[in-house]
Write a structure and sequence with these properties.
- Belongs to the shaker potassium channel beta subunit family.
- The protein has 337 residues and is an alpha/beta fold.
- The chain has a single domain, classed as NADP-dependent oxidoreductase domain (TIM Barrel), CATH 3.20.20.
- It has an 8-stranded parallel barrel, surrounded by 6 helices. It has a two-stranded antiparallel sheet with strand order 1-2.
- Helix 2 packs parallel to helix 3 and helix 7 runs antiparallel to helix 10.
- The longest helix is centred in the last third of the chain and has 17 residues.
């Protein structure tokens, strides 16, 4: 155990927002542990990022059972970081996890069944060393399990005290509406809905975002920087050591197309005029919508996280800026979602 002590005045450095119609506030920027916190990553760097986040008012840490690699290792590392550095601070944190994607071998390790979700949350609690999660999500609608089975399991998880709140992630609109209604009737409403959303992926604007607002669910966006495409990292090609340069199942080199790079360059000019980096502006753009509760950022270093937090210093857009951004995105809509 080291001598880390959280910074005083840390909450003064963050802005918070109530999550949907609940009494729970989340920071506008949350930290996701999807990448860079697994067993293959530098544990000291991971711990430093968690400390820096907490020191700057990030109280929400987003996990899933399969985050790593190896699957489960992000939860295990996070649990170790908590034990070694945050004794006595659990009640100042919102810790979320999820289950539903492939996690272990065999027919029970990767869907949205009651069998999978109940086993998964117990495993996740053991890995993190927690008594409960603040938020537990169904990570996906798997296309097979009846939605009522999955949602009843989430409701039971709250009633058993294994989670305080529940949420859904990446549910299609029809299944999401069913989930919202079933949760509400059970008296365990959906606290939050998690979806991919960025300037390069705006699919949720059509149905999922207004649907969540209709049912009083908060909304949190993951991949707001489009896996790094909405940063200055790829403006001049694919640098060595970047995510697209590595063998990855996420951002591929082929996805860094000339068209997307050109969009990013034009957006970067607007960001420069605003006195921001492209990443900062991209985060502010996602947060411009009043229905948005928070954005989940990933980070590979403290410096990268610090840059993302600078977005909070300039969240407002003029009508002219929003119109210019819209024109740029519309001009290339055949190349972006």
């Amino acid at each position: 155990m080291d001598n880390y002590q959280p910074a005083t005045g840390r909450y003064d450095q963050m802005k918070y927002k109530y999550c949907g119609k609940s009494g729970l506030q989340l920071p506008l920027i949350s930290l996701g542990l999807w990448h860079n916190f697994g067993s293959v990553d530098d544990f000291v760097v991971a711990a430093d990022m968690i400390k820096y986040a907490f020191d700057h008012g990030i109280t929400h840490f987003d996990l899933a059972n399969n985050y790593g690699p190896v699957p489960g290792s992000a939860e295990a590392n996070f649990g170790r970081i908590l034990k070694e550095n945050f004794h006595g601070y659990r009640d100042e944190m919102i810790i979320s996890s999820k289950a539903g994607h492939d996690m272990w071998a065999g027919p029970y390790g990767g869907n949205s069944s009651r069998k999978n979700l109940m086993a998964s949350i117990d495993q996740s609690l053991r890995r993190t060393g927690l008594e409960y999660f603040d938020i537990f999500y169904s990570h996906r609608y798997d296309g097979v399990t009846p939605v009522e089975e999955t949602i009843q399991t989430l409701i039971d998880i709250v009633r058993q005290g294994k989670a305080l709140y529940i949420g859904i992630s990446k549910y299609p609109p029809r299944q999401a509406r069913f989930a919202y209604e079933m949760m509400a009737k059970a008296g365990v409403p959906c606290l939050i809905s998690q979806y991919r959303y960025s300037m390069f992926d705006r699919a949720v604007e059509a149905e999922n975002l207004p649907l969540a607002a209709e049912y009083g669910s908060g909304f949190i966006a993951f991949s707001p920087l489009a896996q790094g495409l909405l940063t200055d990292r790829y403006l001049n090609g694919v640098p060595e050591g970047s995510r697209a340069a590595r063998s990855s199942t996420f951002l591929q080199r082929s996805q860094v197309t000339p068209e997307k790079v050109e969009v990013a360059r034009q957006l970067n000019e607007i960001a420069r005029r605003r006195g921001q980096t492209l990443a900062e502006m991209a985060l502010a753009w996602v947060l411009r919508d009043e229905r948005m509760t928070s954005v989940i950022v990933g980070a590979s270093s403290v410096n990268q996280l610090a840059d993302n937090l600078q977005a909070l210093n300039h969240l407002e857009f003029t009508a002219e800026e929003l119109n210019e951004i819209e024109q740029i995105l519309s001009s290339y809509k055949s190349y972006i979602k």
